[in-house]
Design a protein that fits this description.
With about 600 residues, this protein is α/β, with parallel strands linked by helices. About 10% of the residues have low confidence. Helix 3 runs parallel beside helix 20, helix 24 runs antiparallel to helix 25 and helix 24 packs across helix 26. It folds into 3 domains: about 270 residues, D-Maltodextrin-Binding Protein, domain 2; about 200 residues, D-Maltodextrin-Binding Protein, domain 2, CATH 3.40.190.10; about 70 residues, no CATH class. It is built from 26 helices and 14 strands. It is globular and about 65 Å long. A hairpin with a 4-residue loop joins strand 7 and strand 8. InterPro entries: Bact_solute-bd_prot1 (IPR050490). Keywords: Signal. This is Aldouronate transport system substrate-binding protein.
C-alpha cells in the first residue's frame, strides 16, 4: 500500500511532464511502445477472439484461477525503471504461479520519466516497492541506502545462490563488500540458444527481395541499396511515402546513433569503449577514423533526403509508431526495443508487403569480421534488488527462488500445455499456428501471459535439457514464429536463424566483457565519471548537428573541439583501471 502512494506520485509527475512538453515532442521518453501495439490490435476481431480463447482455455484447466484476495497468497510490489507491459489483475498464468509459489508480484514500469528521475522521486519520498530494478538509477538507490544487502540470505535459497557462480557473484559486490542486487539476464542454462540479435542494422525484407537478395556487408552497400529501392519504390501500396532511414535519439536510447562505430570496426558490444584484445588497451570509439566515416555517411544521406529529418526530435513513441506503420525501410536498433512494432506489423498483415525487418551485421569494409552477437555475459551494473521498505525480505527471496523451479520456468516462458503449447511424443515442445498467433496478441498476453521478465530467469535450455527457455529459440519452432516474408528472406539467404544472417555468435572476448557494466555505474563523484556524463551530453547535442551540417568537415571539427573539452582522457583512464582490475580478478579463478 505504501508503494501505491509513491506510484501515484510518479504517475502525477509523468502527467505534469507531459503537459509541460513542447508541441512537437512528447515528454514520455521512457513510455512503452505496447500502447501503440495495443491500440492497433484492439481494432481487430483477432483480439477479441484471443481473449475468448484465453478464457476458454483457463476454464478447461479449472485450476488456473486463484482468488486474488486469497489469504495464503503473499502480494509483493515491484518497479522496473524501463518501459514494460502491465498485466491484468486476474492474469491467469500469474494466478497459476501464485498457486505454486504462494506469492505474486504487482509490476509497474517506467512511464513519462527517465530512470534517474523516477528513482529520484522514490528516494525523495523515502518509500519503495518490495522489488526494484533502477536501471540507470541503480547507483542512486545504492548511494541512498535504499537496498537490502543480500549476502547473509543467499545461502538459504539454493536456486538463487546457484544462479551465478562464486566468481560472478563477486563481480556484483559493491565497494562495501556486499551484494545488493541480482543481475537477472544473460545467464544460459546448459548452453546459449540465442536466436535473436541485440543490435544490428535492420532492413525490410521487401528491400532485399527487390534486389534479388544481395549480399550486404558494408555501410556503403546498405545505403546504396536503400537509395536505389526508395527511388524505384517511393510509396507503399496505400500511397503513403516511405521513410528510407530513421534514427532513434530519444534520451538514453541515442545509442542507436552514437555507438555503431564499434561494430563497424569489427568489435563486440562493450558499449562505451573498444577493448583492443591484443594489448588489452582501452580505445575511444568516438574519435576513430571509422567514427568519422560513419557520421560522414549519415551526413551525406541526410543531404540526399534519405535520413528522416524528424530523427533528432521524435520521441520513442513516435519512432515506434513509424516502424509499426511499415514505412521505415531501415534503422539501427536492438531487437527488444522494437519488438512491439514487429508484432503490430504482423497483426496488421503488413508482412504481405514485405515490411518485416531482418538484421544485417555491417562493417566499414569487407575485410573485417563482424561481432554484433556475443555469448551472454553478466551485466553487474544493475539487477533486481529488495528495498528497505520490504516487510518480508525472506518471503521475497523465497519467491525469487521458487520462480526458478522447472515447473514455473515453463509457465513463465511457454505457458500452459494444451493452451499455449503442445508436447510431442519425443518430449519436444511446439506451438500450433493458432498458438503462435495468440502469443503475439497484446490483449491475450495481458490476460494470460506472465513472464516476470525483469525477475531472474535463465536463457538457453529448460531443466529438461531438450527444450529452450524461449519458445522463439526452439530450433523446430523458430521459423514458425516469424512473419512469412521473414521466412522467405532467410530461406533465400540459406539461413535458418537471424544468427546465421549475422555471421554467428562470437565468444566472450575476455573477463572484462562487457565494459558498459562498469561505465553504467559511474557517477560525477570521480573525474572519469564527470567526464563520462559530459561526453554523453555533448554527443547527444552535437552529433545530430554533425549529421545535419551543410559542411561536414566543419561540423566534425567543431564537435571534436567541444568533445575534447569534456576531458575524455579522464574517463578512458578510469576504464583502463577497471579493465586491468577485471583481468587481475579473473586470474584468481583460473
Amino acid at each position: 500500500m505504501k508503494f501505491r502512494k509513491v506510484a501515484a506520485v510518479l504517475l502525477a509527475a509523468a502527467m505534469t511532464a507531459s503537459m509541460m512538453s513542447g508541441c512537437g515532442k512528447s515528454a514520455e521518453i521512457g513510455a512503452s511502445s505496447a500502447k501503440e501495439s495495443s491500440d492497433a490490435a484492439e481494432q481487430t476481431n483477432d483480439e477479441a477472439k484471443a481473449e475468448e480463447e484465453a478464457t476458454a482455455g483457463a476454464e478447461e484447466l479449472d485450476a488456473v484461477k486463484t482468488s486474488s484476495a486469497g489469504e495464503d497468497v503473499k502480494e509483493f510490489t515491484a518497479f522496473f525503471a524501463v518501459p514494460g507491459d502491465e498485466l491484468n489483475d486476474d492474469n491467469e498464468i500469474q494466478q497459476k504461479i501464485a498457486e505454486i509459489t504462494g506469492a505474486k508480484v504487482k509490476e509497474t514500469w517506467l512511464t513519462g520519466q527517465t530512470a534517474e528521475e523516477a528513482v529520484g522521486t522514490l528516494i525523495a519520498g523515502g518509500e519503495y516497492p518490495d522489488f526494484i530494478d533502477g536501471s540507470d538509477g541503480t547507483a542512486q538507490l545504492y548511494a541512498a541506502g535504499a537496498l537490502v544487502a543480500l549476502d547473509d540470505y543467499l545461502d538459504n535459497y539454493p536456486n538463487l545462490k546457484n544462479f551465478w557462480s562464486e566468481e560472478e557473484w563477486d563481480k556484483v559486490r559493491q565497494d562495501d563488500g556486499h551484494i545488493y542486487w541480482i543481475p537477472q539476464f544473460g545467464n544460459p542454462y546448459e548452453e546459449d540458444m540465442t536466436a535473436t540479435p541485440a543490435e544490428a542494422f535492420w532492413i525490410q525484407t521487401r528491400v532485399l527481395k527487390w534486389d534479388n537478395y544481395p549480399e550486404i556487408k558494408t555501410l556503403d552497400q546498405y545505403f546504396d541499396l536503400i537509395e536505389r529501392y526508395n527511388e524505384a519504390n517511393p510509396v507503399m501500396e496505400d500511397g503513403t511515402s516511405n521513410i528510407p532511414y530513421t534514427i532513434l535519439c530519444d534520451d538514453w536510447r541515442y545509442f542507436c546513433l552514437e555507438n555503431p562505430p564499434q561494430f563497424l570496426d569489427g568489435y563486440p558490444n562493450d558499449g562505451s569503449v573498444i577493448v583492443n584484445v591484443e594489448d588489452k588497451k582501452i580505445v575511444d570509439y568516438n574519435t576513430t577514423p571509422t567514427a568519422k566515416a560513419y557520421f560522414q555517411k549519415l551526413n551525406e544521406e541526410f543531404q540526399k533526403g534519405i535520413v528522416d529529418p524528424e530523427s533528432f526530435t521524435q520521441s520513442y513513441d513516435e519512432y515506434i509508431a513509424k516502424l509499426s506503420s511499415g514505412r521505415v525501410l531501415g534503422m539501427v536498433d536492438q531487437a527488444w526495443q522494437f519488438q512491439n512494432a514487429m508484432d503490430t506489423l504482423k497483426q496488421q498483415g503488413l508482412e504481405s508487403q514485405g515490411c518485416s525487418y531482418v538484421p544485417l551485421a555491417l562493417t566499414i569494409s569487407e575485410d573485417l569480421t563482424p561481432q554484433y552477437m556475443s555469448e551472454p555475459a553478466i551485466n553487474v551494473a544493475n539487477g533486481v534488488g529488495i528495498t528497505v521498505s520490504c516487510e518480508d525480505v525472506e518471503g521475497a527471496l523465497q519467491f525469487l527462488n521458487d520462480i526458478l523451479e522447472p515447473e514455473v520456468r515453463i509457465l513463465r516462458s511457454w505457458g500452459i500445455e494444451g493452451v499455449d503449447y503442445e508436447v510431442g511424443d519425443d518430449g519436444i515442445f511446439y506451438r500450433t499456428d493458432e498458438e503462435w498467433a495468440k502469443s503475439t496478441n497484446s490483449a491475450y498476453k495481458a490476460s494470460h501471459g506472465c513472464a516476470y521478465s525483469y525477475l531472474p530467469n535463465y536463457t538457453g535450455l529448460l531443466a529438461d535439457k531438450i527444450n529452450t527457455s524461449d519458445p522463439k529459440e526452439q530450433p523446430s519452432e523458430f521459423i514458425k514464429s516469424l512473419p512469412s516474408d521473414t521466412q522467405e528472406c532467410l530461406k533465400a539467404y540459406g539461413c535458418e536463424t537471424y544468427v546465421d544472417m549475422m555471421g554467428g555468435i562470437a565468444p566472450v572476448p575476455g573477463p572484462w566483457f562487457p565494459m558498459y557494466s562498469y561505465s553504467n555505474t559511474m557517477t560525477t563523484a570521480t573525474a572519469g565519471g564527470t567526464a563520462w556524463t559530459k561526453m554523453g551530453e555533448i554527443k547527444h547535442e552535437y552529433l545530430p548537428k554533425v549529421v545535419m551540417a551543410e559542411d561536414f568537415e566543419q561540423g566534425w571539427s567543431e564537435y571534436l573541439d567541444v568533445y575534447a573539452g569534456c576531458q575524455p582522457e579522464d574517463f578512458l583512464s578510469e576504464m583502463q583501471e577497471e579493465l586491468d582490475r577485471r583481468i587481475e580478478n579473473a586470474a584468481k579463478y583460473q
